[in-house]
Amino acid sequence: MKTLLGNAIDSIQIGVEDHESDDPRRVLSAVRNISAGVLLLFKERLRQLSPDGSDDVLIKQFIRPARDKDDSISFVGKGSKTVDVQQIKDRFKDLGIKTDWTRVEAIIKVRNDVEHYVSIESESRVKELIADTFAVVRDFVSDELDLEASELLGEETWLAMLQVSEVYEAHRKECLAELEQLKWWSPGMARTAEYLRCVHCESDLIKPQTVGKRLSITQRIVCTACGGAMDLIDIIQPALDECFYADQYISMSQGGNPPLDYCDECSTVTYIVDDGICITCGSGHKHLKCIRCGQGLTGEEQQYRGLCSYCEHQATKDK
Ligand SMILES: [Zn+2]
Ligand SMILES: [Zn+2]
Ligand SMILES: [Zn+2]
């Protein structure tokens, strides 16, 4: 039987071969194989750390307690289902196993995108995936598995990945440097720039067509991966959501003010609360505090001419 490590190597090697083939139908297969390979490497680490006789407890989705002959209790794996991405993440955290989760999540996202919307099989997304995988595998294999990635995957696969990754990273750096030249309206908007993607092919290898003295929301953006063009306004909303995703999640699950708010002027949810500016129309909230109780006002409450919804309710009741 092939080991997990053997399967991980096979998957990544075949994925890279898929990518090098001229057959466009193999793009999907490249994404699937490469992302699967990364997850198998992670599982291999969990397998290695599982105690002997525990039925590979750390890679099993379900765990059950067992009583040994000497009455000691231990946990063993149950069934054949193995851990999913979230469980791998949790167990890595518990066991102090480190990897670059931002890149891993980018890999998983490309995988999910191709599974759900077959149209996002763009060439540049696969190159990006290979670049991310290259960095993740290089560090994980040497830091956690104590092996050399080039030896493990074989010179041929490793050099092919290195080349794609270097070209991609250099290109990405150029694009980011040009995006940085734009006169972003606020710090939050500047942060969002890093998350912008082409509306046609989803690539992040995009840059401004020209850089003017002032930034307009209809700024022309060109994609160096597919050659398409778009306006900034066409792509800013998803970038903003992704940029503030973690803060938004924390505010929803643990309370606190959400980082983004509704803009009463242009009816979008692109108002950055910390910056006090809507990055679609450039306006701020007209009323910041309730004139009656001093409570901070949300975008939805702007319609009450300076009152919060509670005070507005009280005022109309009194009439
Ligand atoms: Zn594009
Ligand atoms: Zn607005
Ligand atoms: Zn009030």
Summarize the structure in words.
With 319 residues, the protein is of the alpha+beta class. It has eleven helices and eight strands. It folds into three domains: 4-170, no CATH class; 175-243, no CATH class; 260-318, no CATH class. The longest helix is centred in the middle third of the chain and has 26 residues, at 155-180. The protein is flat. Residues 290, 292-293, 295, 307-308, 310-311 line the site of one zinc ion.
Short description:
Helices cover 50% and strands 12% of the residues. Helix 2 packs parallel to helix 3 and helix 4 runs antiparallel to helix 5. The N and C termini lie far apart (80 Å).
In this entry the ligands are: zinc ion
> How many structural domains are formed by the residues?
3
Q: Order of strands across the biggest sheet? A: 3-4-5
Number of helices: 11
Order of helices and strands: HHEEHHHHHHEEEHHEEEH
Structural class: alpha+beta
Point out poorly predicted stretches.
Answer: none
